[in-house]
Amino acid sequence: MLSQIEINHVFRILDANKNRAVEGLRAVEEFFRFVASNERITQKLKEFRHSLCAACRDHADSWLLQRDSNEDVGGKIQGVDEYSRSDFDAIIAANLSRAGESLRVLEEYSKTFESSLGAAIEKLRYQFYDLEKEIKQFVAVHKNLSGRFLYVLTSACESAVEFETRIKELCECSVGVIQLREKNISDGELLERAKIASGICKTFPTLFIVNDRPDIAVLSGADGVHVGQEELPIKDVRLMVPTSMLIGVSTHSIEQARAAVKNGVDYIGVGPTFPSKTKCFSEFKGTELLDQVAKEISIPAFAIGGINLGNIQKVVDAGINRVAVSNAIHAAESPSEAVAAFTRVLEGCSK
């Protein structure tokens, strides 16, 4: 049993750490509100912050009475990087760490005078772990996809030699993302092609994605896997691949795009926008769906379906500055010039 003096010390600790946790959460929340414009994560951070304040509400005034900032020796101790933040990532990392550490302190010290409060903070701490994971995944993905506006889909070609040449040419043209989409060869050949592409892309700043096959993506060392609405559920794909691997999904409606965000995908393909020579669809969304996605969905979105240099302006006018193309590059008289032309338009609108 603690003495009254000891309880007052505990209250001082709890006051400091409740404030530290709330401040850390708010610093992260402001990034998602004003920089990332991510309504979903902003809302989650806000709700969590309010839940923490509500859990402490009955005791906060008592804790506050023990506050004595002038006698806080910690205020005179300066960390090495305390007054330096290199970028948004550093701000988020520092404040997530601050919030997580403070929650643990709140839980441990509140147990000395009220076990129910300790239990409530423990529950919040585990919720924070899930939120922290989602935030760090979001930051990592956006950093990985930053500046990648052109996503080129390719078949496996007639031979491994032809495929290797194509991948090298695309990488040398500074294509941001390459996806291998092929359903007409054996698994062994598909894996061989995927390993070729993965190896080449690793020597360039180009991401390599495998379509529909998480197993092939993992075995080839790809950067990600892309699935359609008819393939494996995202939660199952996530269990099959490393946490660092990107997961994309094709979406054909705003409802599917919302579901993709909820399921934690890293990026989406949106379309089909226009009629395409690569895939057959009974319905084409035009730019209406692109406009909806641009206004509502915060994760990276690549417009897909019949996009070429003749209609790319309609895509960017709808608010989307990332596109996935195939025939527009491979059938061009000069694929490298086509890549350069797409890149100029997309990078220009991103600025």
Description:
The chain is an alpha/beta fold and 351 residues long. The chain folds into two domains: 4-143, Ferritin, CATH 1.20.1260; 147-350, Alpha-Beta Barrel (TIM Barrel). It has 13 helices and eight strands. The chain has an eight-stranded parallel barrel, surrounded by seven helices. Helix 11 links the parallel strand 7 (301-304) and strand 8. Helix 1 (4-35) runs antiparallel to helix 3 and helix 5 (160-172) runs parallel beside helix 6. The mean pLDDT is 92.
Give descriptors for this structure:
TIM Barrel; 351 residues; 8 strands; eight-stranded parallel barrel; Ferritin; single chain
Could you provide a short overview of the structure?
The chain is α/β, with parallel strands linked by helices and 351 residues long. The chain contains 13 helices and eight strands. Helix 9 (254-262) links the parallel strand 5 (246-251) and strand 6.
The description of the largest β-sheet is:
8 strands, parallel, barrel
N to C succession of SSEs: HHHHEHEHEHEHEHEHEHEHH
Question: The CATH topology of the largest domain is what?
Answer: TIM Barrel
Number of strands: 8
**How confident overall, as mean pLDDT?**
92
